[in-house]
Amino acid sequence: MLRPHRILRAKLKPVFMIKVMTRVYRWLLYLVAFGLLTGCAARQEAPETPQATLKLPEAFTRAGIPTVSARWWQSFDDEQLNHLVARALEGNFSLQASFQRLRQARAVAQRQGASLFPSLDATAGAQRQESDAVTSETFSAGLSASYELDLWGRFQSLTRAEQLRASATFADYQAAAVSLSGEVANVWFQLVEQRAQYGLARSQLETNSNVLKVIESRFAMGLSGSADVLRQRQLVSASRERLSNIKGEIAVLEHQLAVLLGRSPGQPNLPVDDTLPALPPLPETGVPAQLVQRRPDLRQAWRLVKAADEELAAAISNRFPRVSIEASVTTQASDASDLFDNWLSTLAGNMLVPLVDGGALRAEVRRSRAVLEERLQQYRQAALTAIQEVEDALAREQQQRRRIQSLENQLQLADTTYLQLRTQYLNGAVSYIEVLTALKEKQDLQRTILLTRQQLLNVRVALYRALAGSIATGETPTDSETDSAANRKESSEA
Asked: What DSSP string runs through 126-190?
């Protein structure tokens, strides 16, 4: 017979357990709600659009008319340049290495995305034991599955972060292609300019040699002094030295261009051209807001900002309880034919609640928030630098145009001065030192004009690179490797 206090305890025990379980469920609901609110707050750390992070000017200082395609180098109407850029995009080893980094990043994103799905493993085994002439055999097989519930969106945040990081790597690959095309164009224009300088130097050497013959004839007739002959011979010698220096510079540029194309410097097999192309009309610059969305390096920086925001959300979610489910079915028999007759199944649920960690998880949240702020500031700086590059290119082009006009005017005056002084020298009105000075000034201006035209083309290349968007390369990613999820997400935000 039960005593009264035992009867009362037996009646109160179910009521007590119900109250305990109710409190547990209530706290779990609190934790879920708190985690969802905190996760949403983490995703609001980064601005929704790139334009929201900056105060961009409404327009650039200058704007052209023609619209430039992604293959901006075709604007120069130089078939040799088009051929060289195509070869570089296909054969440059640094660009191919960048493409392999892209494949690595996409593989990491795919590996992280696997955490959203359950894992399933199959096992099989056989065991044989012998003892005192007794032999026993055991066969076993089984399946085990495990899955962690993504209650707070931690796995989703980490997966999106890796997808955004892979998308940023793709933008970096595109930026590398733009940079490579710009390097090829700059080196090609320098090579063409040096070849033109070589032709000009040969012409100047011929002119100086003809003038030397005239001076020597006058010296033989007693109409000129020996000092005039020596000065002119010195100028001829300097002209020959210039030819040798230009030839060495041409070889160096050919080697540099060959390496950019992925070829051996010893056998560049480059086209022969010594005429600089005409400068195309000033392209349409658009507005800074379009530049921010178009440039691949800025798209890369922005996607890193969004990836850091997702990692911050994951770090916050990591502080909350984790719930995982494990299930398995196994069978064991002494005969292989009876292996699948009897099955043993198990189902288990586990909850992991971080209670005391010495502040490690909270510190990780602070670190992730600082990383997000760092990425955001880097993006802002990159956007301002991009706008500066456009404005600098516009200002330098305007200055180079004025300089070329001034140099051409100076060359015309120097040529007239030289012809007049030469006539006066032949008539004995002036000394030869004045004629020699005028000749050297004229030849210096000719060389300077060639160099300035090449620099103007390089400035235009800098403008195209500053305005350039994505360009197609010889190694286009396959559909299975695309980062369409991150791109669609970014497009919807923009």
From this structure: EEEEEETTEEEEEEEEEEEEEEEE-TTSHHHHHHHHHHHHHHHHHHHHHHHHHHHHHHHHHHHHH
Retrieve residue 362's tokens: 């909270």
Q: Report the C-alpha gap between 267 and 453 in whole angstroms.
A: 29
Residues contacting 178, CB < 8 A, separation 6+: 296, 465, 468, 471
Q: What share of the chain is helix, strand, coil (3-state, %, to 5)?
A: 70, 10, 20
Cα→Cα distances 411→158, 194, 270, 431, 455, Å: 65, 20, 33, 22, 18
Residue at token pair 């993504």 = 150
Q: Tokens in use for 218?
A: 């006058």
Which residue, 389, 439, 487, is CA-closest to 179?
389
Cα-flanking dihedrals φ and ψ of residue 60, to 5°? -85, 165
How far apart are the C-alpha atoms of 134 and 386, rounded to whole Å? 82
How many whole angstroms separate alpha carbon 464 and alpha carbon 295? 11
Look over the chain and give the mean of its residue pLDDT values, rounded to a whole number: 83
Q: Is the dihedral of CA 334, 337, 339, 343 positive or negative?
A: negative
**SS3 (DSSP) at 331:** strand
pLDDT in tens, 365-409: 999 999 999 999 999 999 999 999 999 999 999 999 999 999 999
The one-letter code for the residue type at 217 is S
Strand partners, 141: 124, 331
Q: How many CB atoms lie within 10 A of CB 237?
A: 12
SS3 annotation, 27-55: HHHHHHHHHHHHHHHHHCCCCCCHHHHCC
Amino acid at 274: D
Other CB atoms within 10 A of residue 6 CB: 10
pTM over 0.85: no
